[in-house]
Amino acid sequence: MRSDRSQSAPRGLKIAAAAGLAFLHLPILLIFVYAFTTEEKSYQWPPPGLTTQWFAATWARPDVWQALGLSVQVAAISTAIALVLGTLCAAAVSQTRFFGREAISLLVILPIALPGIITGIALRSAFSLAEIPFSFWTIVLGHATFCVVVVYNNAVARFRRTSGSLIEASMDLGADGFQTFRHVILPNIGTALLAGGMLAFALSFDEVIVTTFTAGQQQTLPIWMLEELVRPRQRPVTNVVAMIVVLATLLPILAAYYLTREGDQIAGAGK
């Protein structure tokens, strides 16, 4: 007798799944195609010809490199801040019991649940009220608000699956707090933190809405792309940059997926 798992899915379900995937990913494939087009002024389909000249043109554009460098710096620092704050919040919420714990957990994840424009307006109002000039650091603070949530969600789930008896045994054997964290807790939550950091970096790298309200005169790579679409100089260059952004965000997301999938076995789980 065949099990339910071995039975093939209905043909209608397969067609619906294929149609959904095509709807989601065909526009992305079009970006890749237009990065090689010979047409500079418009999006003509099919492309009149194919060329790789726009990759050299992109390489020679200093404004692209400046925007890319800013995006990488902002994403890296925002991720570092998120790793520290998100891990501490996750440890406090999952390992201890105190009044208002669930309310604090809700407040931590609220920034990613709110529409980006609300977060952006709130941050801009706060910076203006505090008379903080818009700069590189206002972008970092804006991005850190939602990056913390990503790290927190990954870390708190792993903390809750880690057996408390391991920590108690470490303390009973004479280890101090730092030794327990280094040799017991970190090996169990390490892949979750790495996955959360990668997701946070990807989210920060391609953020547009919050950056628009907190950037001032700076241009991250997504903001540069937005302005190029409004006032284009070389349309295919924008598509080349878009292709780079897709790859730069896809790789960390895939890595985070495999890390969290392979981290199902937790030391001491179930004890």
Under the CATH scheme, the architecture is Orthogonal Bundle
CATH class: Mainly Alpha
The biggest sheet, with number of strands, parallel, antiparallel or mixed sense and barrel status, is:
none
Q: What is the CATH H-level superfamily?
A: MetI-like
Tell me the span between the first and last alpha carbons.
Answer: 36 Å
Which radius of gyration do the C-alpha atoms yield?
23 Å
**How much of the polypeptide forms β-strand, as a percent range?**
under 5%
Number of helices in the DSSP assignment: 11
Keywords: Cell membrane, Membrane, Transmembrane, Transmembrane helix, Transport
Domain ABC transmembrane type-1: 68-256
Family: Belongs to the binding-protein-dependent transport system permease family. CysTW subfamily.
Pfam families: BPD_transp_1 (PF00528)
What is this structure, in a nutshell?
The protein has 11 helices and no strands. By secondary structure, it is mainly α.
Please explain how this structure is put together.
The chain is mainly alpha-helical. Helices cover 74% and strands 0% of the residues. The protein contains eleven helices and no strands. Mean pLDDT is 78; it is low at 265-271.
